[in-house]
Amino acid sequence: MRKGIILLILVIMVLCGAGSAEALTEEKIPTNNTVASPDTRLKTGLSNAVWEINPAYRSQVTYSGGSFYIPRDRTGASRTYTDLITVTYKDAGKINGRSIDVKMNIDKLVQTKELDSRTTDKGEFLKLWSEETSLSSYKMSGKGYKCTHTIDVSYEITYGDSGEIVEYPFFQAAVDIDTKQNVASVAEGFKQIRGYTRYYTYPACVLIRSGGGFYSPSQLETSGRDSWTKTGLYATTENGSFKSTHYLTNCRTEIYLFNQYAESLIDRPSLSVDSSRVYRQGEEILWEVKQRIGEFFVTVMSPYDLFSISDDIPGAVSYKSAEVTDEKGRNVTHLGTLKYDESKREVTFRFGEEFLRDKSVYDGSVYTMRIKTEAEAPREPVETVQNTARSEISGIIMETNLQAVTIEAPELSVQKTNTGKEYYRGERVTYKITFSQRTEGVTAENAALRDILPEGLRLDRETVSLTGLEEGEYTVKFEDNGYEINIERLEYGEYTLTYEAKVDAEDRAQTLTNTAVITASNAERKEHSSNIRVMEIPKFAVRYSFVSTDGSPLPQEVIELVPEDMTEYAGGTEVKAAAPEKDQVDGITGLWTFEGYDREKAVIEGENLLFTGAWKYTEYPAVLSVEKKASEGVYYHGDEITYTVDFAQELEGIEGKNVILKDRLPEGLELDEKSLLITGLEKDMYEAEITDNEILIKIPSLGFGEYSLIYKAEAATGQNAASLTNTAVLSADNGRETVTATETVDIQGRFGVEYDFRSADETPLPEAVERLVPEDKGWYRTGETAKAKEPEKTEVILDEGMWKFEGYETDEKTVEEENVSFSGSWRLSRPELSISKDHDRTKAYYSGDIAEYEIAFSQNTKGAYGLDVRIIDIIPEGERVLEDSIAIRGVEDYETRVTDKGFEIIIDRLEYGDYTLTYQCEINGPDREQTLVNTAEIKASNVENSQEALSGLTVLEIPKLVKYEFCSDNGKRLPLEVTALVPEDGDVYYRGDVVRAVRPEAESVKVTGGTWRFTGYDKEKKTVEDNVLFVGTWTYTMDIFSKTGDSILLPALFLTIMAIAAVSGALAAGGRKRDRR
């Protein structure tokens, strides 16, 4: 009944609303899992709401805690309220940076009549929560409020700064459209009136679409996500002006407003670049502008009108190329139009209309425009390039963050130096100018190096020399007393310019300064100055100095011999060098000898004169000594011997130069390299090399003193005695002589014990046996007794069989000047198979019988086993094996394969032992005497030959029997007197025999009323093919008169026949009558 009322109401609502609202398209959201987040909604709640109640209803509308109530008409009449209340939500959100206000007006509220006295007196129609709004027909407390509300609501959403209607589409969510409590006869619902464009519902939605709106189907209550997916819907709008009707029944419907272009739903673009490094001219700079697209049915409900990404290429970089990629890095530039406006230096990518219409692309992913630019020459040494990009979505332009990169210009440097001494008039100054371009990867354009000499210096143009640049890469321009080097392109690197200048300044003390300047059109100017000190020329003097020929310091005894000349000489005077008082000085470690002056005489020409004398040092030779000894003892092969080599430099005051101590060990000694030790020297004072059993100690400088080389060596002479001699050799570059020391050590003979195994036959020994060869690490002297060691195992079981150790040729041997060897013998016992087969020979077998067979098989070698053993039984024609009867005693794991010709048993591994295989065969051959021979074969993969066993089963022909039967010629039952005469034949017959029928003992038998007479058999003789049956026939003859003659049979017989005829006639007549009927 209730469902019928609901349907009637829905029909009425459809009829009433059919002409008032245009039907909108409904589209299903693909999944129930995407719900628009309430956190992204426009703020339409108590926190930002102001309201105004129509003065005509102020006395009727009450407010409490965010809820607005109207009273129930106690007369039961319906009430209509017009322009009941206007609620304005200030600063509900921002679009394109502009604040928006939402004005919601309840244009009309119709309250249905309700006379139930149990209802409350007033009901809620509007609820303002903190951040959201609900329309309702809701009880205040206690009793239910059964009046329903039909509410027409209009919205105007405007910009706060101008009052203009927002031109962008919105989408509205109506949630929890259900019917609750005691008013299930009325359906809650939502219906658009104007300004809406489309409905969206979830797959789980249970609302009924009717008359341009959606209605709850029946008594229903939802909560949580179900209130969105089952009883909720979205409606998109054309712009910020729209109107709808809400049907409420004792429940609330939440109303959410969203705008996909609001700042809460649309992500701003971002710009990224690698700003962690410094760029140089010509290098690539990659800018990436990222913009996230909205997610349909979550943040977007209408396709974008426009979606573009742009960037104004900043100065100091040049545009090269661009592409657009999706979140997976795939190039998607083909999805729109990429354009670079060279006049505006603007690169723009605009997504195509087909792309924007496709709802599936609105998946919340990020699209990136990758812009490749190239660094240009900076206008300053270090230039910072700033960039911001933008995106535009449906007319909303959003700027990215600011990014900056640094482009570095060429860096010039210049340094000017001279020899740094004091100069006199007439001397020459050598200048060195080092200049460079320090920034790698860039070029200094139109570089120039300029140097103008001051008064007092005169440039020698012939000495100007430039290194680092090839001819043709620069030009030189000389001025009166200077020069300019022009370089069109100065690359990264360092360059050197040298020249000489003559001092022509006045003869007085003064400082002369000149400056080198380097410039470039794209680099900062750099300069560097160099000063020289010009001294007044004195009266000329002659001076002397001594130096050593090798640069070493001179001893005081030599320095004291420098001549002194206190005379002042005029210019042009020729002076002869004065000889030292002595030309030889004897030192402690060597002899100093005067070699002469740099010149014997010279003329004074405007400057002091200096004679430089040279002294040569000859060092006395170093005195070396060496001794060598080995530790005392009796040594055998394998013993360790300690050697000590004592060496010294015996001349105090000098050092041995490049001293080498060499000790090569002879064959029979093996050096322990880790034992090497040198005393008296620090480790950084020598270098030790060990190669091929030779010790080489290199000492660059060996002072006065005693030292030792200690090392250990192992005797490795083997079995024989040996006398081992080795010599230590000590030498130096300045040694008086090379010295040696020799030591001899006697090694006694020692002998070892060796073992080998051999096969007792030609079979090669396996690795498992050879691994058992014993080791004797001991050593034996001549005359000692060596006893043979038993192997760890004397039996080894392998696939091919069991190897058994048979012993050595002898158990012990006496050592006699050579190693002792023991040879052990092993013998292989291979697995051996045997098989026999039989059956019960006490029985006679006929066709159709079951024959039982027994196969006895063995593996006869202890310790060995057969591998992949197969028992094959070929069943002859005339027998059929019964598969279920096959069984083996003693073997648990085996496989049976039955074929038309027999069967096969497979045993992976057959141990030593005896086993029995039994099975049954059905004799299914023809019934004749014959012998059935079947063959059993056993073989294994590791046994060379197979074994066979034959069994012959004799099948006899089944004996045939002869039987007799009697019958009457007319089917009459034979009396006992006749059946008692059936012959019996106790003999047996075989196929081909001819059997003649035995006549009955009596061939006529008299019974009451008649006589039975034997008329013969079906055949008198038969050839035996199977059991034989002779069938004899008897005929009965009735007596006409009885023996007494007291009654006449014929009349009685006649009357009987007549009676039978009469009855038969009547029956026949009745049958004909029935046929007619």
Automatic annotation (TrEMBL):
One of the Pfam families matching this protein, by short name: SHIRT
TM region positions: 1048-1069
Cleavable signal peptide: 1-23
SUPFAM superfamilies xref list: Bacterial adhesins
UniProt keyword list: Membrane, Signal, Transmembrane, Transmembrane helix
Domain SHIRT: 539-618, 751-827, 962-1037
Annotated ranges, domain DUF11: 412-525
Domain of life: Bacteria
Keyword Plastid found: no
NCBIfam families: B_ant_repeat (TIGR01451), RrgB_K2N_iso_D2 (TIGR04226)
UniProt xrefs under PANTHER family: CELL SURFACE PROTEIN, LARGE CYSTEINE-RICH PERIPLASMIC PROTEIN OMCB
UniProt name for this protein: Isopeptide-forming domain-containing fimbrial protein
Organism: Candidatus Allocopromorpha excrementigallinarum
Native organism taxonomy: Bacteria, Bacillati, Bacillota, Clostridia, Eubacteriales
